[in-house]
């Protein structure tokens, strides 16, 4: 591993008390893939597999201070952003990305928790479009997020591609359009860049244990980039990691359960 790719990932996102998503999933994922996770927490959420019952934002100056403390000492080879909450946080995080000086950012435009609780104010969608998407090395929206960001109907794989083109036009260097919300026996994700596209396809896993899949996939992509993998290689590694983590889900909780983030440590 070169000095430029030490596997350091700064994660800027919310905390999930249930451990299945958010910062907790991010740390476990990055560690399981051989990286080093540092964090700037944007909010503390009260949640379990049944849903979110509380969201407590972190003060803006504290979010900024966490990011700067990490970047000015430990450094980062990639940055992953998740739950941002509102437009003011989006602005602070955009400033942190600029302070990082060209470190590739994986932007997961988190809007709604698996159980349906809103995690991004509707008024903040414009800030994500104008401030986060142009700074994204890789944007990782699911179909509802893509629809919210583009104003397009996103119900099929072709719809995903059209929305992906629109998001590239907004300034993202690459988009991974996630097809989990698109009906069908197979799940098709499409990695799109101005140079072309790559599809990642597999049988849909029949399980309720899907909490944190988006956070996990984005962090796995960031971990690969931080260790020097090319974009397509990082996404392929991430896709396979999440697929196996879903298959090995421990079955915790009565609702949308977590994945097995640590499976790589036992094989």
From TrEMBL:
Enzyme class label? transferase
Alphabetically sorted, this entry's keywords are: ATP-binding, Kinase, Nucleotide-binding, Transferase
Task: Say if the entry is tagged with keyword Coiled coil.
Answer: no
> Pathway involvement?
Cofactor biosynthesis; thiamine diphosphate biosynthesis
What is this protein's record name? Answer: hydroxymethylpyrimidine kinase
Q: Name one Pfam family in it.
A: Phos_pyr_kin
Q: Which residues form the Pyridoxamine kinase/Phosphomethylpyrimidine kinase domain?
A: 16-260
Presence of the UniProt keyword Nucleotide-binding in the record: yes
Q: Which InterPro entries match?
A: HMP/HMP-P_kinase_dom, PM/HMP-P_kinase-1, Ribokinase-like
Documented EC number(s): 2.7.1.49
The entry lists its GO molecular-function terms as: ATP binding; hydroxymethylpyrimidine kinase activity; phosphomethylpyrimidine kinase activity
Gene Ontology, cellular component aspect: cytosol
What processes in GO biological process is this protein linked to? Answer: thiamine biosynthetic process; thiamine diphosphate biosynthetic process
> What span is annotated as the signal peptide, if there is one?
none
């Amino acid at each position: 591993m070169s000095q430029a790719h030490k596997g350091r990932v700064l994660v800027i996102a919310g905390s999930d008390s249930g451990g299945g998503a958010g910062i907790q999933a991010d740390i476990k994922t990055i560690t399981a893939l051989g990286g080093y996770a540092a964090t700037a927490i944007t909010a503390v959420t009260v949640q379990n597999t049944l849903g979110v019952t509380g969201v407590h934002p972190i003060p803006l100056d504290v979010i900024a201070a966490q990011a700067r403390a990490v970047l000015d000492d430990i450094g980062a080879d990639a940055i992953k952003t998740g739950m941002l909450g509102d437009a003011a946080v989006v602005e602070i995080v955009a400033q942190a990305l600029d302070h990082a000086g060209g470190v590739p950012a994986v932007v997961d435009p988190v809007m709604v928790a698996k159980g349906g609780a809103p995690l991004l104010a509707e008024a903040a969608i414009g800030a994500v479009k104008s401030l986060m998407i142009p700074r994204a090395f890789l944007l990782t929206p699911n179909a509802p997020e893509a629809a919210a960001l583009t104003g397009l109907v996103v119900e099929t794989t072709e719809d995903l591609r059209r929305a992906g083109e629109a998001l590239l036009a907004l300034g993202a260097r690459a988009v991974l359009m996630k097809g989990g919300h698109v009906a069908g026996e197979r799940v098709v994700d499409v990695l799109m860049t101005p140079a072309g596209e790559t599809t990642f396809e597999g049988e849909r896993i029949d399980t309720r244990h899907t909490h944190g899949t988006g956070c996990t996939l984005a962090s796995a992509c960031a971990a690969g980039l931080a260790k020097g993998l090319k974009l397509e290689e990082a996404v392929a590694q991430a896709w396979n990691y999440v697929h196996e983590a879903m298959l090995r889900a421990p079955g915790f909780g009565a609702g949308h359960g977590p994945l097995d983030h640590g499976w790589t440590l036992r094989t």
